[in-house]
Amino acid sequence: MTNEALIASLKTIVKPYVRNEEGFKNMTEHTDFLTDLQINSANLVDVILDIENEFDIEIDNESMEKMLSVKAAMEIITTKLSEK
Amino acid sequence: MKNRVVITGLGVVAPNAAGIESFNEAIQQGVSGIRFYQELEDLHFSCCIGGIPPVTDEMAQKYLTPLQLKNFNSSGILYGCMAGMDAWTDARLPVAASETPDWDSGTVFGTGISGVEKFRESIYKIDDKKVRKLGSTAVLQTMASGVSAYLSGILGLGNLVTSNSSACCTGTESILMGFERVQSGKAKRMLVGGCSDHGPYIWGGFDAMKVITYKHNGEPEKASRPMSASASGFVPGSGAGAMVLETLASAVERGADIYAEILGGASNAGGQRGTGTMTAPNAEAVQRCIKAAMADAGIQSADIDLINGHLTATVKDGMEIQNWALALDRKGKDFPFIHSLKSMIGHCLGAAGAIETVAAVLCLKHGSIFPSINCEDIHPDICEIIAAEKIPQQLIKWDNLEVIAKASFGFGDVNSCIILKKYTA
Q1: Within a 10 A sphere around the Cβ of B332, how many other Cβ atoms?
Q2: Residue ranges of domains in chain B
Q3: Which of B32, B134, B18, B169 is nearest to B81 (CA)?
Q4: Do B66 and A49 touch (CB under 8 A)?
């Protein structure tokens, strides 16, 4: 999966949780979920569950803690996909 | 100095109508909201009927955001939010700005149990060793204070935010608790009310207790029969009722429309002593509660024009009437009018007192007494205490309707009674 395709599917996943539309419009690899998109921190677990469903992977607790940005999410998804 | 407390906003989501205007029409016309539900029959319930508000997904989307509705499975919280937001809008109050809450406004919004469907969903996941799949909202939708937490976030309430719970007394008790807070000056405005989930997981326990009727599955609209000789148990309902209580000074200052005034009220318990048990009321406690409410309101029993009863359609209805007659020392033709909204919407449990008090306020506002349906065959025990004509079978228009007593009684031997009055400056 290309980086562009990965970002595109992440965009669809995070959309319902975003509270900063401007940040969402300009979402890139360097976007932070909490500061740039203003996602409520409680909703991060929902974002991760939606990622698990979308990619059919399971994200362990340690990886979950690191998933605070688009870049981190992309790395973890790529790693988990390659382990399948 | 005690503040006078007035009602400036109403909201309701009831089995026979959602929204104040259509609810007012429905109760005046005696429209039943009780229906047959195949799901209950498939689950082998004895009682396959119930009251579920006519709420569609489209309606829910007008109140809650797509994010709030994601993985949402708590009908009681939805009904509570709808009724509460409607009451707030009806009172023409603003939603607090994004940075600062409204420090002068709070809520006491009760429920018997919250999010039972969400709880069930969560339990299945936990037992399947998938606790991590619960997501972030399982707690928020199942905590007892869920409904008040949702409402305070939506409206930006910065005063007391809590949920009370006292079984079938919950709705009436919440109004009294909010009333006391406004009366004492601790809040300018309180959003009060109660809500209840619908469905088999909340109604099942009552089915098992055999306190709900199994004799009318083929004629749901005739099933809820308070005060009738053929009453055979209550019909379970659901929904929410809400109102905005406000100091008279605040209401006048902002030019609010005033529906009615709350003069006073009382809550007590029978301690499950004497005739009282976990499920039956101590008669003396009921009478004391009614008398204490009158004393708190500063009225005499002769002032009461109408009683909005608890009257569930069980064998206890006659006992309730007897308690009213003794507490008021009025009987026969001297007894006030008395009716039961449960005849149309069933027993909405934690929401019952709130929805029924909303109906009582509408009676004062419109000078009308809605009919108590399904009691054309009044129970002979009741006829021995009060004149049959005191139970309206048809809508009665009465411009001079001034004072209504509303009471609710609940499991745990708990009681609440409120005295409402038509507003006059």
Answers
A1: 12
A2: 5-253, 265-421
A3: B18
A4: no
Whether residue B87 contacts residue B23, with contact meaning beta carbons closer than 8 Å, is answered with no
Q: To the nearest whole angstrom, how far is the Cα of B135 from the nearest Cα of chain A? A: 5
For A3-83, give the CATH class.
mainly alpha
Q: Which two tokens stand for residue A77?
A: 């998804």
- Measured in angstroms, the CA of A48 and the nearest CA of chain B are apart by 9
CB–CB contact B133 A49 (8 Å): yes
Tokens 């600062």 sit on residue: B100
A and B: number of Cβ contacts within 8 A: 17
Element (H, E) at A54: helix A44-55
Q: Tell me if A49 and B70 make a contact (CB, 8 A cut-off).
A: no
Which residues of chain B make contact with A46, given a CB cutoff of 8 A? 70-71, 135-137
| Rounded CA separation B390/B306 (Å) | 9
In angstroms, the separation between the Cα of residue B413 and the nearest Cα of chain A is 40
What would the pLDDT profile of B111-138 be if each residue is shown by its tens digit? 999 999 999 999 999 999 999 999 999 9
CA distance B405 to B307: 5
Helices (H), B219-316: 248-253, 283-297
pLDDT digits (tens, 9 = 90+) for A11-30: 999 999 999 999 999 999 99
Tens of pLDDT, residue by residue over B299-319, are: 999 999 999 999 999 989 999
Comparing alpha-carbon positions, the chain B residue that sits nearest to A48 is: B135
**Chain B residues touching A43 at Cβ < 8 A:** 67, 136
CB pair distance less than 8 Å for B67 and A45: no
- Are B135 and A49 contacting, i.e. CB atoms less than 8 angstroms apart? yes
The per-type count for chain B, helices as H runs and strands as E runs, is: 16, 15
Helices (H) and strands (E) counted in chain A, each on its own, are 5, 0
Task: Tell me the per-residue pLDDT of B172-212, one tens digit each, with 9 for 90 and over.
Answer: 999 999 999 999 999 999 999 999 999 999 999 999 999 99
Q: What is the pTM of this model?
A: 0.96
In whole angstroms, what is the distance from residue B246 CA to residue B185 CA?
10
How far is the alpha carbon of B87 from chain A, nearest alpha carbon, in Å? 27
Q: Buried b vs exposed e over B93-114: b needs ≥16 C-beta within 10 Å?
A: beebeeeebbebbbbbbbbbbb
Which fold is adopted by the domain B5-253? Answer: Peroxisomal Thiolase; Chain A, domain 1 (3.40.47)
- Thinking of the domain B265-421, which architecture would CATH place it in? 3-Layer(aba) Sandwich (3.40)
- Contact between A42 and B66 using a beta-carbon 8 Å cutoff: no
Q: Burial, B311: exposed, middle or buried (Cβ in 10 Å; 0-12, 13-18, 19+)?
A: buried
Domain ranges of chain A: 3-83
Contacts 24+ apart (CB under 8 A), A12-18: A13/A47, A13/A50, A13/A51, A13/A54, A14/A39, A14/A47, A16/B66, A16/B67, A16/B70, A17/A43, A17/A46, A17/A47, A17/B67
Report, as an integer, the average pLDDT of B285-301.
98
Q: Is the ipTM of this complex over 0.85?
A: yes
